[in-house]
Amino acid sequence: MSRIRIYVPGDAAALSVGAEATARAIAAEARQRGLGIELIRNGSRGLLWLEPLVEVQTPQGRIAYAPVQAEDVRALFDAGFVSGGAHALRLGDVEQHPYFKRQQRLTFARVGLIDPTDIEDYLAHGGYRGLANALIMQPAAIVMAVSESGLRGRGGAAFPAGIKWQTVLAQKAEQKYIVCNADEGDSGTFSDRMLMEGDPYTLIEGMTIAGIAVGATRGYIYLRCEYPHAKRALEAAIAQAHARGYLGENLLGSGLRFDLEVRLGAGAYICGEETSLLESLEGKRGQVRFKPPLPAIEGLFGKPTVINNVITLASVPHILAQGAQSYRDYGMGRSRGTLPLQLTGNIKHGGLFEIAFGMRLRELLYDVGGGSLSGRPIRAVQVGGPLGAYLPESQFDTPLDYEAFAAIGAMLGHGGIVVFDDRVDMAAQARYAMEFCAAESCGKCTPCRIGSTRGVEVIDRLRAGDNAPRQEALLRDLCETMTHGSLCALGGLTPYPVLSALNHFPEDFRSQPTARAAAQ
């Protein structure tokens, strides 16, 4: 008799709301009833307000129940949930849920569907087809495919991946490296973590293809230390890939080699900047390097290095498996493919939502996200992490596109979207941006190190009404200096949230409480 397959997410999001207790309760209840089950700890499907989300494989397909706490398990078994029985928590097929159904999942196609550390499951769902194609292509053809796909870096700068790869390919060096920036430190972002915990082989395959494309034989995943579940998943997957010949010497009998390992960062935000990351990876203090030379020419240990973030590299297997045009068919303008958006903050339906570029922010907030969790009007949205601009309601019709956001003085960044209702104090948010920069600065350049500290002081004087016109002028001048004088994006982008708050919500910077604030 075949065993019943039950899926309970084992990633950090589900674990934080009781998934481990739910899994134990299911196993215990099945034993007590004499039922043979196979309990699979998959990744989250991304509907985070419904975690822990439990799925059961039935002849009619996978049936979901959510949110399932340990105390719900006995009643679920009584209702016959192992065969898809009716219950108040029954959702049906997750992929038919309105939140999931309207997505266009390319990078996250397998997340939640497979056992993350089972290479056979990965292969059964189309894994390593991209690598198989890459092994019969010339390196220049692989790079060309990535270029023609329109893939741009998903870490913030949106630099074309193919140009970076071509630069490394053109270098003559005995040793080259592939480095994955998995130091996901922006507020409201979790797509890297979800991918690594839910489908680590996609990242491993993408990095292996990158190595073949540019002639690199070694790769490093620079992972933030706050991601222990991702570390375990990655290391288990890497071990299996080595054992099966998908990593190491003589990749699948090709005569090529690529080795991969995980290195932990200590949690400094500045190490999300690629040159600071390289310094840390070399065992030094994480400080920004001067450019030139670019890392593609002199990167890790002075050797040519491809540095891309998790989602960029994890997008590569689809491109090589399905073709550059297949990926390019998604999106708009120069923003091609899909972007995993992360809805957080005061939002009813928070989670991960992968969609092609072009959806308008308003549609994402209300039609997908369901509006604010509090039920109050959404006043502001910060897109792109702690250094992203605050967008007012008047800009909610902006399409989610790199150039469209740049045109309004904002950035998509890593796709993190944090929602605030009408009770937010935007002056306090602007102050936080400056304070964050001061705390996280590596200290190498004056505009960032000193400017952010002075910025906090100026905002405090402005809010106190201490010669407000002069303080506002001083704050704007300081922001201009930081934008144009900082060595890296930490200081250079801090003015984005500060100026957007000042420009769109000037009433919050006045010393007298507004009617809105008084009503709170």
Automatic annotation (TrEMBL):
SMART domains: NADH_4Fe-4S. GO terms for molecular function: 4 iron, 4 sulfur cluster binding; FMN binding; metal ion binding; NADH dehydrogenase (ubiquinone) activity. Keywords: 4Fe-4S, Iron, Iron-sulfur, Metal-binding. Transmembrane segments: none annotated. Residues 427-472 form the NADH-ubiquinone oxidoreductase 51kDa subunit iron-sulphur binding domain. Pfam families: Complex1_51K (PF01512), NADH_4Fe-4S (PF10589). The keyword Methyltransferase does not apply. Its cofactor is FMN; [4Fe-4S] cluster. Gene3D superfamilies: 3.10.20.600, 6.10.250.1450, NADH-ubiquinone oxidoreductase 51kDa subunit, NADH-ubiquinone oxidoreductase 51kDa subunit, iron-sulphur binding domain. It comes from the Bacteria. Belongs to the complex I 51 kDa subunit family. This is NADH-quinone oxidoreductase subunit F. It comes from Solimonas aquatica. The lineage of its organism: Bacteria, Pseudomonadati, Pseudomonadota, Gammaproteobacteria, Nevskiales.
